[in-house]
Amino acid sequence: MAGITNSPFRVLCREQGAGLFVCEMITTRALVERNPKTFRMIRFAESESPRSIQLYGVDPVTVGRAVKMIAEEDLADHIDLNFGCPVPKVTRRGGGSALPYKRNLLRRILREAVTNAGPLPVTMKMRKGIDDDHLTYLDAGRIAVEEGVAAIALHARTAKQHYGGVADWEAIARLKEAVEEIPVLGNGDIWSADDALRMVARTGCDGVVVGRGCLGRPWLFADLENAFNGDDSRKTPTLGEVADTMARHAEGLTECFDQERYAIADFRKHVGWYLKGFSVGSALRRELATAESLDGLRESLAKLDRDQPWPPNTDTPRGKSGERGKVHLPDGWLDDPWDCVVPEEAESDISGG
Q1: Are residues 181 and 263 in the same domain?
Q2: Rounded to an integer, what distance in angstroms lies between the CA atom of residue 221 and that of residue 22?
Q3: Which residue of the set 13, 85, 205, 214 is catalytic?
Q4: Is 205 an annotated catalytic residue?
Q5: pLDDT (tens digit, 9 = 90+) per residue, 70-89?
Q6: In terms of residue numbers, what domain contains 273?
């Protein structure tokens, strides 16, 4: 959810219902070096509580220093460690979903994080493994318990699956059985509140993590809150209500980025998600997706049919999908699952946020 879960979008989601809303992934080296871009990325609105930072790192020492900064400087109330990212620029350096294969390196990172977090809870998100021949989630779960991690979230796909195929909810059930001491959260293919209820019923997990399901749909969190409280009602906003939310989202990005042109350009990727299922002509969709100013976006939004009802059958996949041909890894990464060597230049070119 990099480039998505910044403060303006989190605020819209948080208004809809209870939950823990995590910022986009932050590299530990960039945080330790006090990179200006990174510090902009960890800004929280006054209404955000608790504040949650998600960290990515490969070097245990750097991870420990970053976590210590967060705790000592009161930068957040919760720390989540990302061992689930499958993108090549992360995995080819041993990070994200590649890292749990190195069991002892994972242990060192978790130990440094928990030791330096003080009173802050540390959680982690991971995938099943690199591919079906290199599954790591059960070993990683036990290591997390032994090192004092507060909770684990499992995206029930491998790194090779990327966002393709169907999430293996049975893996969440197996992890729950293997890790009884701490909460296990399930992630993968939650496109509606009813999906979340089915996941909990099928796997016994303690809660769910939502990623792509909320793209262009912050009110999904209202549905989730209702569902877990036994309320069958679901949010079905009209196109006018969706347009109002789109305007607020763009306005929030403008305030966050301090550059209107950049903010509106960033908002463009959300247009298709917000309008999913609605009847909107291609010319108007293109106009909305190429807006260059806040006023121009508002003018285009005013052309939408505000009374158009929420479309049926929209509880379907959103965002990127598809499996990767291979997972990009450091040379020799699979040779020894127990070594603790940090790849050379593991974070050398990702110090920007």
Answers
A1: no
A2: 14
A3: 85
A4: no
A5: 999 999 999 999 999 999 99
A6: 239-301
